[in-house]
Amino acid sequence: MIEIGKLPNARAAQALVDYLKGKHILCEIHPSEEGVTLVLLQDEHVSLVQREYNDFINNPYQDKYLEASWNNGDSHTQIDYGSPGLHLVSQFMTGAGPLTLTVMILCVVIFAAMNLGLSNPIFENLSFFGATANASPIEFWRLFTPSLLHFSALHIIFNLIWWWYLGGKIETKIGFTPLFILLIVAGTLPNILQYFIAGPYFGGLSGVVYALLGYTWLMGLKKPQAGIGIPPSYMIFMLIWLALGFTDIFGFSVANGAHIGGLIIGLLQASIDSRRKTL
Predict the structure, then answer these.
(1) In a domain? residue 122
(2) 206 given a catalytic annotation
């Protein structure tokens, strides 16, 4: 047996096993700390399986894998997931890099502190210029820090799920630098746009989330080998969510300027990065 590589999701790995089975190549998946390990049972097919594994990593949404699951899948296949709790933690950790996790921790700590009696001092020090009377022009961090402020559980959960999913894809598959650039640029310029549209009273990571959405979607189209594409249905859902923000359906103020600004930044950055030979 030869270990080919690791995959974070057992179900996705089974699709690759089914595809290779259609080529008369026998593989198995074994539980590991980082998800599952793909193991080849036949030594003579190593180079071919390695190529197929890399192709799957870069573009796991190809129709050929779904077709293979229908044609070659075994409905009796049992996958030992190990401890469900440990599996969830492992999947969470392997789906994100240091920057992704650091931003999540910052947002959670700030949100918790705001709900433990520190709401006023935190808002006074991290809100955008003009939101408080004591804001100084030299406090440059105020251009970015509103992105770390969240005002309800639904607000922070929604943003952090998308940040983990999209930001984790970018950081683990492309690297730290593209995500850091998107975080800083989409965490500042959309805030400025939102300020001129509706004033200084706003917060949340959603401008950055929309930047990641636009970046991931366009990179998936223009450079699928980067391996960060998303299903079109996700993009449609978020565009509908964006459009609903211009109505009163939510019953609260939505930072539409930050959302649109972030989306544009993500699309522009993807247009640039998709033309580069290396990232």
Answers:
(1) yes
(2) yes
Query: How many structural domains does the chain have?
Result: 2
Q: List the beta strands (DSSP E) in the chain.
A: 2-7, 27-32, 35-40
Q: Domain with 30 in it: what CATH number?
A: 3.30.70.2350
Q: Are residues 124 and 141 in the same domain?
A: yes
66 and 101 in a single domain? The answer is no
- Is residue 259 annotated as part of the catalytic site, yes or no? yes
C-alpha closest to that of 19 among 61, 81, 47, 82 = 61
Q: Active site residue: 69, 90, 147, 206, which one?
A: 206
Which of the residues 76, 152, 259, 274 is marked catalytic?
A: 259
* Nearest alpha carbon to residue 270 among 203, 217, 210: 217
Parent domain of 210 = 97-273
Indicate if the alpha-carbon torsion angle 133, 138, 144, 148 is positive or negative. Answer: negative
pLDDT in 10s for each residue of the chain, 279 residues = 788 888 777 777 888 888 888 888 888 888 766 668 888 877 777 888 888 888 887 777 777 777 776 675 554 444 444 455 444 555 566 678 899 999 999 999 999 999 998 989 999 999 999 888 888 889 999 999 999 999 989 899 999 999 999 999 899 889 999 999 999 999 999 999 999 988 999 899 999 999 999 999 999 888 887 878 888 888 898 888 888 877 766 666 677 888 999 999 999 999 999 888 766
